[in-house]
Design a protein that fits this description.
There is one protein chain. With about 500 residues, the chain is an alpha/beta fold. Helix content is about 30%, strand content about 15%. The strands form 4 sheets. It has a 10-stranded mixed β-sheet, sandwiched between helices. A 4-stranded antiparallel β-sheet has the order 16-17-18-19, with helices on one face. The protein is globular and about 75 Å long.
Length: about 500
């Protein structure tokens, strides 16, 4: 008798527990639903816009059709030309810092991520006390998904995308990898570390070996759109692997550029067109779902093009990883509902940190506290004056350089970085012959309105202006870079041959 009584109590306990869990998740879903329907576009009562945030990796200024007619990017061109082309949209010189800015609204030098990138064995990431963009959008009722490259730290589970506000993640965690095998190798202290870097949320994906990542990410994005419950607004963060090295692309895309003689440039251009096709497939899915007209599409590069790997920033000066305009002025546009002046080119200053408050505002939200990003949504949606008159390119104590723009004037302190020069699309001749260097110059001052390609250094002409800009730069409080030594505990061999969290 006692046995049956205990079984009955356990059964009752199980039913009660099941009821509690069901109630909990029902309340969570109701809360999200309420958030989704309770914030409207005040005057018109419209639903919140869906948001598609596309980041192209290492895309150069001269690598899109609206800047270079030789590039075959019809889908991106159509979105850009029917939206607002952002002609002065700035990013960081390299990728982890730019992604930090996108996701936090802070300059990377405020949070210690200004120097270089997060390498696979470095035990750090975006500080865990910061609220990332998807976390804020979830509070506004958004379903949130990340597809593509993370590169914001993964040494602990708390740094992973699913713990930073994303309902789902499909992609890779490190900075680069093989487009087909989805593996990443890394050499440290003469030891070669190698492992799979591809996963769906917490689980490694071993079944996509041989499939091109640009196609995989497009397929995943389309699947998310098709299965999305339109009761809730959608936020999809889509940082492509393309067009970062290694230069790999299916032959049919390379064949689109048979007139390009330089092998690296031809492959690179094919990679751009493969990404453009992917964007076309994704926008077609939005249209088929009936939500394209209510979707804001943001497109931006994360830094300038890598000229040593086929990219091009001409006529801008410099390269990825430099403080020249070619390293920091990104190809960008916004397309979708609510824009005051579609089919236009906007020359107002924008910075990567601005996307956080701008998209939150477009979603009907607001921010508490102070971040570096400025809300550009009133400028884009109402045509009011742009809020930004200055920006900081970089403050890096380890590299010993910094740069600031106030109005039309830009000051670079310390070495701007290399490669330098004005590098046209490559021919068969060596790129090294096209580079121009100023290794000994400590200060550079340019009037970017009169000299957007940075040909004329005015530092000796206007010493008072140099001093004023140096003083302004000194007012920004930069923390020291968080740049720890590599930690072999992150070896994929410790995690079944997969780059994984759990070692910091």
């Amino acid at each position: 008798m006692m046995f049956f009584r205990q079984k009955a109590l356990w059964l009752l306990y199980f039913i009660l527990l099941l009821f509690v869990f069901t109630l909990y998740y029902s309340l969570r879903r109701f809360s999200a639903f309420y958030a989704a329907i309770s914030h409207h576009d005040g005057d018109h009562g419209k639903r919140k816009p869906n948001i598609l945030f596309i980041v192209a990796d290492d895309l150069g200024w001269n690598d899109v059709g609206w800047h270079n007619r030789k590039m075959i990017t019809p889908n991106l061109d159509e979105l850009a030309q029917n939206g607002v082309i952002l002609d002065h949209s700035y990013v960081q010189p390299v990728c982890s810092p730019s992604r930090t800015a996108f996701m936090t609204g802070y300059y990377p030098f405020r949070v210690g991520l200004q120097h270089s990138v997060i390498w696979p064995l470095q035990p750090h990431g975006v500080p865990l006390n910061l609220t990332l963009l998807p976390q804020h959008l979830k509070k506004l009722g958004y379903a949130t998904h990340a597809v593509g490259k993370w590169h914001l730290g993964f040494c602990s589970k708390k740094h992973m995308p699913n713990e930073r506000g994303f309902d789902s993640f499909y992609g890779y965690l490190t900075g680069s990898e093989d487009y087909y095998k989805h593996t990443r190798g890394f050499t440290y202290m003469k030891h070669f570390y190698n492992g799979l870097d591809f996963r769906r949320s917490w689980n490694p994906v071993r079944t996509d070996n041989g499939s091109y990542s640009t196609h995989l990410f497009a397929r995943e994005a389309v699947d998310i759109i098709r299965s999305h419950d339109p009761t809730f607004p959608l936020f999809m963060y889509l940082p492509f692997q393309a067009v970062h090295m290694p230069l790999q692309v299916p032959q049919k895309y390379e064949d689109m550029y048979k007139d390009v003689q330089h092998s690296d440039r031809r492959k690179y251009c094919g990679m751009v067109s493969a990404m453009d096709e992917a964007v076309g497939n994704i926008t077609a899915a939005l249209r088929a779902k009936g939500i394209l007209d209510n979707t804001l599409i943001v497109f931006t590069s994360d830094n300038g093009g890598q000229t040593l790997s086929g990219g091009n920033n001409f006529p801008l000066r410099g390269n990825k990883a430099t403080l020249w305009e070619g390293g920091t002025r990104g190809a960008a546009f916004i397309h979708g509902p609510g824009l005051k002046y579609p089919k236009s080119i906007n020359s107002a200053l924008m910075h990567a940190v601005d996307w956080y408050p701008t998209l939150v505002a477009a979603a009907g939200g607001s921010l508490d506290g102070t971040i570096d990003g400025l809300n550009q949504w009133p400028m884009l949606s109402e045509g009011v004056s742009a809020p930004r008159s200055e920006l900081v390119y970089q403050i890096d104590q380890l590299d010993g350089n910094a740069a600031i723009r106030v109005g039309n004037y830009k000051l670079i302190v310390g070495p701007p970085g290399m490669p330098d020069g004005w590098i046209p699309p490559p021919s068969e001749q060596s790129l090294q012959n096209l580079h121009h260097y100023e290794n000994e110059t400590k200060l550079h001052l340019f009037n970017l309105k009169a000299d957007p390609t940075e040909h004329f250094n005015l530092a000796d002409v206007y010493p008072d202006l140099v001093a004023m800009l140096q003083n302004r730069l000194a007012q920004y409080r930069a923390v020291m870079p968080d740049y720890p030594d590599n930690d072999p505990r992150g070896d994929p061999a410790n995690f079944g041959g997969v780059w994984s969290p759990g070692w910091c």
